[in-house]
Amino acid sequence: MTASVMERNWVVVSVVVMLCTAIAAASAAGADARMGFRGDGTGNFPDANPPVKWSATENVVWKTAMPGRSNSQPIVVGDRVFTCSEPSTLLCISAADGKILWSDTVTFFDTAAEDDPEAAAIIAKVNAGTTEKEKEAVKESLKKDILRCEYFDMPPVMGEHFGFTFEYTMPTPTSEGKQVYVVYGTGLVAAYDLEGKRTWVRMLAKPTSATGYSANPLLAGGRLVICMGGRLYGLDPATGKSAWEVDHKERYGSPVRALVGGTELVVMPYGKVYRASDGKLMADEATCNGQLTAVVHGDVVYSAWDESMSGEGPPRFLTKKGDRRLMAARLKPAEDGKLVVEKLWETEERPSSYSSPVYHDGLIYNKVDAGKNQFQVVAFDAATGQVVYKSPPRPVFKGTDPHPCMAQAGPYIYGGFDSGQMWVFKPGREFQEVATNTLAKGGLGASLTQEDHDQMTSPPFFVGSRMYIRSHKFLWCIGEK
Q1: For residue 39, what is the DSSP state?
Q2: I want to staple 359 with a disulfide (CB 3.0 to 4.6 A). Which of 264, 282, 297, 372 is the partner?
Q3: Are 279 and 232 in contact (CB under 8 A)?
Q4: Is the pLDDT confidence value at 19 over 50?
Q5: Beta partners for 283?
Q6: Cα–Cα distance between 144 and 409 in angstroms, integer?
């Protein structure tokens, strides 16, 4: 081969490499890096290749003891896992080996208390201390003033209730890949870069629920959307300042993101839909959920209403009778620039009281109570709402509930329970069980005791061949070994 031909070939190869690099960079830049509750909000992790069998000792890549309990789901951002700890601590853990890289706790004394001059004066006196010891001494000297000032009151939480622990870290952190945002049931909201530098903290509002706050934050339309204290906030993620606010009742269910006609939307429990960028009301009567979080697939929203968990009557647009309903509605652009809500179907079948469903390939999956400490999987046809199948009832540990939301990861569907049990089955129009697993001591045949009951109330998070689970005592990394 002559030198000129070799040189020409090298130029061609160089151009191809440059083009491939440019395409990869453009693809990465265009990828949606937003992660939070249920991953992208749907519970779908299509690129995952997860394990199907594990126990407290089998296929455990690592297990890290947590400093406190939490009901929040872990999220993975790059090579780091983020999770919370009671009452207001964010932890960053290495995804490779489970080591805690950093943690930070926010309190009322980290805020400016802009709307409360009395609290602001107390905070200024405390922060005048140059060391933590000095600050604690100032707090002690101002103890009576602090107790008298409502700004420093912790909102009420129920604690243990029917086996579930209502506390301050039920919301899951969210991230766009550069910063991590966290909301606590204390009313505090904070943002961090990935190295642990706190970029801002704000006292947003005291939650109104008497049992605890669980609505997750949402990144949509360039805003950090949070519903708390009777208001829906669209915050500037860079500063934490309000870009918009509207009155909206706080509920357990979380806002979810939808994209219709090129516009990013915030779909709220009990029906209202807002434009994410400016908070403009675009539609109503799109969802019926209060306790659970809705699921969006394309322009269709699937939501469930449960009378026993709502604390308020059924939405007026529900027509069927019964104490639980499942509904589907399509969001369509209207000529006036808003949206038209087309109700597709409503069913009286009993969806789960606690667990949000997952959509996959035309079916909706969830867990339902079959009585006598048994549960079963139910699959609905997403186009009609008709039941496709109900699996044979399966036993669960006594007193357990199906709080962890359903998830689809790679070729499997995952359905978990508070006790650490999790079912794995194949998607499709017939039930095909793959495995039943548990993280409880003693395995599936164990008689669960309080000591063994390491509560797992959040759904798993999947990345590649690994699954991350937050129980009250540990953060688990599960993978084939």
Answers
A1: B
A2: 297
A3: yes
A4: no
A5: 273
A6: 53
